[in-house]
């Protein structure tokens, strides 16, 4: 019985093979349609096409960045005595103007100047700040120095910096006069 089953299986597979061959012979084979265009025609085509695409994107970004719509009030390389720009006041500010006339400025704007503090004054102020903060040492995050009141954060509290002997050597009358003039 098993031999008969084997023979019938063999015959059925032979018939299937014959049918497949006939169907292949009947249909003319036409070339398969390419889904993404023609095959690669020169070496490294993918690399070159990606490079051209990247260069195109960079060119577009560069071209659009040249057409800046911002107008700068002052550039870093400019040395200005004074340059101003008027700005519309906010609604809240206008309400305060009506509530308290004469207490607040009536114009809103921006001012840029390089002559507010001279370079020698900046050097003196920086020396005062660094020297004062060298005497600090708070347990928390930032150290605080208030030259108006003399408050300096030290440990968990504040001390009066003007009562410290090291501060008397650090702060002289000339430096403090520059500080008072600038503030």
TrEMBL record:
Stretch list, region Disordered: 1-32
Biased segments, Basic and acidic residues type: 21-32
Keywords for this protein: Membrane, Transmembrane
Entry GO CC: membrane
InterPro entries xref list: OGFOD3 (IPR039210)
Protein name listed in UniProt: Pkhd domain-containing transmembrane protein
Species of provenance: Lasius niger
């Amino acid at each position: 019985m098993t031999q008969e089953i084997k023979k019938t299986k063999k015959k059925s597979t032979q018939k299937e093979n014959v049918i497949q061959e006939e169907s292949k012979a009947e249909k003319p084979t036409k070339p398969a349609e390419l889904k993404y265009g023609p095959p690669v025609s020169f070496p490294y085509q993918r690399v070159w096409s990606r490079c051209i695409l990247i260069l195109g994107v960079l060119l577009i970004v560069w071209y659009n960045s040249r057409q800046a719509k911002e107008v700068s009030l002052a550039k870093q390389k400019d040395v200005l005595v004074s340059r101003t720009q008027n700005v519309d006041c906010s609604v809240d500010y206008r309400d305060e103007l009506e509530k308290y006339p004469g207490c607040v400025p009536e114009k809103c704007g921006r001012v840029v100047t390089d002559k507010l503090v001279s370079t020698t004054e900046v050097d003196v102020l920086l020396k005062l700040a660094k020297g004062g903060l060298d005497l600090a040492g708070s347990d928390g995050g930032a150290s605080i120095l208030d030259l108006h009141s003399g408050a300096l954060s030290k440990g968990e509290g504040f001390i009066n910096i003007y009562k410290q002997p090291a501060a008397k050597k650090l702060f002289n009358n000339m430096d403090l006069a520059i500080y008072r003039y600038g503030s």
